[in-house]
Amino acid sequence: MFKRGLAAAVVAMLALAGCGSGSDSGDPKTLKLWHFEPPDSAMGTAWAEAIKQFEASHPGVKVSFEEKGFEQMQKTAPMVLNSKDAPDILEYSKGNATAGLLSKQGLLTDISDEVTKRGWDKQLNPAMQTTARYDERGVMGDGKWYGIPNYAEYVKIFYNKDMFAKHGLAAPTTIEQLTTAMDKFAGAGVTPLAVAGAEYPAQQVMYQLALTKADRDWVDRFQRYTGKVDFHDAAWTYGATTFAEWVKKGYIAKDSAGLKAEDMGSAFIQGKYPIMISGSWWYGRLVKGIKNFEWGSVRWPGIASGSAGNMWVIPKGSKNRELALDFIAITMSQPIQDKLREAGGVPIVNASTPPANPRLKELVEDFNAASAENNLAFYPDWPAPGYYDVLASAVQKLITSSATPAQALDEIAKPYEENLANVGK
């Protein structure tokens, strides 16, 4: 029943949008699609369903899908999209250093006219539009539309309820409660925080700590170049110093410097750590994977990393632009967004009724609250090309104690300032 209703809704939506199989004249075609969502994630589940509905509503057209690694796309996208091997549509990271850079280099299609025509500007509130629009400098927030975000995301505190109960601890809803819990676990010989230094998780934790001393102006200066950034101000200093202290106190394992995000998530799912500070993109995995203990999540106190999710972008050299736009339309349809939500993701298009599952209700409501409060701070690697690796290196040195907090901040300041000097050139 669900699939039949979903197919009918998608076909109707495509007909209203003036797209669908008629635009293809019945000729066999292939839509080359890349994304980096694991098949068991909420987004992977939803996009798989979207592919089925796309092929059902476009007779004679097949989707050639390739799953790419997030790290792989971070490093190779500019080169690949400037070659004959580029896909027709792909999921790509948002922000100045990624989608912004590609738009500035002329590698992405300006879809502004289609956004208005298909009503996507009405589906996305102003906060969600920020990461889809880039000016001539490649700076997000204004200018032309170069992509469509397809879900939302934000960083939360996930915790093992059974381990917390065993040690007489309450849910860590404040920094003080979080620190008290980690101190008690470390005192009992339990490393409290699951972390991965080789990829995004550790740098996001350090950024989260800095955000506890930051405000909206601080975020905009760093992310959108609206003013001078001092990497030795109170916020950055607190972030780096506190992270280093957490390592010294045994809250973070020194061998986590070489771990990847998957290592971190798997270890938390297996019950090896009581706390994981990471994104809502893990939610679906946790729901499916955790079998032997009770778990919960709480909002990060105050401003937190988060935004609209990754985007569908259409390379300038796409051979099937209209088909790519049709696929985006399907992923933005209510049935697919509902599918994403029910699989544990945060939808970009909210349903008229809340989810029945209390966990999913909490997930969506927490994001909506953070968005309404303007408490989403994007992600630390966005401001400069190559900044992801710079941050990873600096934070790894904090984990291994091979650099002081001041030295780590110097390391992340230099490439930021070098990039800022080139903005607009």
From TrEMBL:
It comes from the Bacteria. InterPro entries: Bact_solute-bd_prot1, SBP. The keyword NADP does not apply. The keyword Signal applies. Residues 1-17 form the signal peptide. Keywords: Signal. This is Sugar ABC transporter substrate-binding protein.
